[in-house]
Amino acid sequence: MTSSGEYTVSETARAAGISRQAYYKWLNRRLSLREQQEREVLEEIKRIEKRHQDSVGYDRHYPLSS
Questions:
Q1: Phi, psi angle pair for 34, to nearest 5°
Q2: What is the DSSP string of 5-47?
Q3: How far apart are CA 43 and CA 52, in angstroms?
Q4: Could you tell me which residues come within 8 angstroms of residue 24 by beta carbon, excluding any fewer than 6 positions away?
Q5: Max alpha carbon distance in the chain (Å)?
Q6: Radius of gyration over alpha carbons of the chain, in Å?
Q7: Distance from first CA to last CA of the chain, Å, rounded?
Q8: For helices 9-16 and 20-27, what crossing angle results, to 10°?
Q9: Chain segment 29-65, per-residue pLDDT in tens
Q10: Which of 4, 2, 3, 30 is nearest to 12 (CA)?
């Protein structure tokens, strides 16, 4: 663990039972078509929410993931 209380990549990979190389390979992979579409939909939802957050009756009842 680092002095700021965060775990290093090596520690996290070890806890997950994978190598650092496997983690970086996964991190730098190309997104699947479905992942790309999901990301685009979430970005559009966030744009719409931002546009309408000052509207009368606006109330978000669910968390948005990034």
A1: -65, -45
A2: SPPPHHHHHHHHT--HHHHHHHHTSPPPHHHHHHHHHHHHHHH
A3: 14
A4: 9
A5: 51
A6: 18
A7: 25
A8: 100
A9: 999 999 999 999 999 999 998 888 777 666 666 666 5
A10: 2
Residue type, 47: R
Which amino acid, 59?
Answer: D
pTM of structure: 0.50
Cα 20 to Cα 7, 14, 26, distances in angstroms: 13, 8, 10
CA 54, CA 52: separation in Å to the nearest integer? 5
At 8, list the tokens. Answer: 């290093």
Q: Answer whether 46's CB lies under 8 Å from 64's CB.
A: yes
Q: Within a 13 Å sphere around the CA of 13, how many CA atoms are in the beta-carbon half?
A: 13
Q: What angle do CA 30, 31, 33 make, to 5 degrees?
A: 125
